[in-house]
Amino acid sequence: SSKTDLLLLCPSLRSVRDRLVTTAKVDATVLITGETGTGKGVLARALHDWSGRRDRPFVVCDCAALTASLIETELFGHEKGAFTGANSRRMGRFELAHSGTLLLDEVAEMPPEIQSKLLGALQERNIYRVGGTTPVKVDIRVIAATNRDLKTEVAAGRFRQDLFYRLNVMSLHLPPLRERVEDVLALTDHLIQFYAQKF
Predict the structure, then answer these.
(1) How many helices (H) and strands (E) are present in the chain, helices listed first?
(2) Using CB atoms within 10 A of its CB, is residue 98 exposed (0-12), middle (13-18) or buried (19+)?
(3) What's the rounded Cα separation, in Å, for the pair 172 and 89?
(4) Which whole-number Å values give the CA distances from 81 to 12, 70, 125, 189, in the listed order?
């Protein structure tokens, strides 16, 4: 995509680009770290687009945008009658991403009780809908992104250590633009050409 091209034309990100190509070929869980706005979502999309799952769904769950009461049903779905207002069965993001890729954006915002359920889903490769007792098999690649240092979150007791290790099978880090001064000229030149053509 154009966003991926824009990010990867940066001279300082050549090593990230090389690692991205290698990582995309390996069907393993990936943890992407970096400050807000550095392009973690763009990298996740590139990982999907360059992988063997490219023709399958790419589903995003923004963990920071969901309340603790909503995130479980958003991730795992629910059965009819599981709670007031559950008038029909609903598929969660795990099922929607079946055979494709699930991006868990800002995963550090996930409540502890959901972290436990996520760990179980990653280990067993099946999920239980809210109110359900039958396991649902899922075949997905999980990419997690965060703007926090998860090792610090683990040490503070806010993030499960076993979940951290399960997510951190492969990792990519995106430094902020202020640490990549050599990229400013390349980005400026690209944006001037883009907007000159557009307008």
Answers:
(1) 9, 7
(2) middle
(3) 36
(4) 53, 16, 25, 56
- CA–CA distance, 42 with 57 (Å, rounded to integer): 15
> Going by C-beta distance under 8 Å and a sequence separation of 6 or more, which residues neighbour residue 162?
119
At which residue do the structure tokens 């990936």 appear?
30
pLDDT band at 105 (very low <50, low <70, confident <90, very high): very high
Structure tokens at 31: 């943890």
Q: How confident is the model at residue 139 (pLDDT cuts 50, 70, 90)?
A: very high
Residue type, 25: K
Tens-digit pLDDT profile for residues 149-169: 999 999 999 999 999 999 999
Distance CA 172, CA 34 (A): 9
Token pair, residue 123, equals 């280990």
Beta strand segments in 97-150, E: 101-105, 126-127, 136-137, 141-146
In the structure encoding, which two tokens stand for residue 158, read together?
């806010």
The one-letter code for the residue type at 53 is R
Token representation of residue 98: 């079946």
